[in-house]
Design a protein that fits this description.
Number of strands of chain B: 7
Shape of chain B: globular
Strand content of chain A: 15-25%
Largest sheet of chain B: 7 strands, antiparallel
Helix content of chain B: 25-40%
Structural class of chain A: alpha/beta
Largest interface: A-B, 22 and 24 residues
Distance between the termini of chain B: 15 Å
Order of helices and strands of chain B: HEEEHHEEEE
Strand content of chain B: 35-45%
Number of helices of chain A: 5
Oligomer: heterodimer
């Protein structure tokens, strides 16, 4: 089964680290650089999972999460927040809106893989 | 004040260790009323607003910035003005500010983060503007003769 993950983040460095971690496992990573672009990409590409930053220009991650969970064609897609802004208030907001996990930046490959395993119920080596 | 000073040190060391496998060594530290300073090279800054209002500035000489970017992406950038350099320097500042914010929020001082701003040049003015919390720290980076400089200026509300 091929897995496609959408990384929504305004940092190319984060996309690169995510890709470097997941590509060797055969996971396809597609990207968007802000919440608005991310919602559109999710509607168009139907990823299996979304990694979502919180602090971004144009549309922040919490607003994007709300839109994703309102959308008939995106509300079923599991979302993991991947953000430097990891205070409890943000975690609570994201959880209330439907995010399944919150991974703090800076993050290790192990933390990312562990999150994916939990959410997608995968047996990938961590 | 001491918890913020410690939080700055821990945030910087933690981000570089986790993202770059670089063990930074804390060097010089100063706090109190700090004079305005001028940085040369590249500076990543992130502001926070709320019960804590402030800005983190992380200053890198050109060579250090390029070495860090090379370690992160696996190839040397053509120069400090390349987009991959500003991206990495901005994101590292974002991660440090986020970690710092999480630590201050645990003490009751939360705020919103704004996306990072990256400045380039030889005369970048960094001024505390009289902020009651003014912290300067420098860090030795492995294999670099030049240190990383970090400043945090802030005011706590309430």
């Amino acid at each position: 089964m091929s897995i496609k993950i959408l990384s929504i983040d305004d940092s190319k460095m984060v996309h690169m680290v995510v890709n470097k971690t997941l590509k060797p496992l055969g996971i396809e990573v597609i990207t968007a650089s802000n919440g608005e672009e991310g919602v559109a990409r999710a509607q168009a590409d139907k990823p299996d999972l979304i990694l979502l930053d919180a602090t971004m220009p144009v549309m922040d991650g919490i607003t994007a999460l709300g839109k994703l969970k309102e959308g008939a064609d995106t509300k079923h897609i599991p979302v993991i927040m991947l953000s430097a802004d990891s205070c409890q208030e943000n975690r609570d907001k994201a959880t209330a809106l439907g995010a399944l996990k919150f991974i703090s930046k800076p993050f290790t490959a192990e933390a990312l893989l562990g999150g994916l395993k939990d959410v997608l119920n995968l047996s990938i080596p961590a | 004040m001491q918890f913020i000073n410690d939080a700055v040190r821990e945030a910087v060391i933690g981000v570089f260790d986790t993202m770059l496998s670089l063990r930074l060594e804390a060097l010089e530290v100063a706090e109190g009323i700090l004079p305005a300073s001028t940085a040369a090279g590249i500076v990543g800054s992130v502001g926070m607003a709320g019960k804590i209002n402030g800005t983190v500035y992380m200053s890198y000489p050109d060579r250090l910035a390029c070495a860090i970017v090379e370690k992160m992406i696996g190839e040397a950038p053509a120069g400090v003005d390349q987009p991959e350099v500003t991206d990495v320097i901005g994101e590292l500042a974002n991660m440090v500010a986020g970690d710092l914010k999480r630590r201050t929020a645990e003490k009751g001082y939360n705020g919103l983060l704004v996306p990072p701003i990256v400045m380039l040049g030889n005369g970048i003015n960094i001024d505390s503007n009289g902020a009651p919390i003014s912290i300067f720290r420098s860090f030795r980076v492995p294999n670099s003769p030049e240190p990383l400089s970090v400043r945090f200026f802030a005011k706590l509300e309430g």
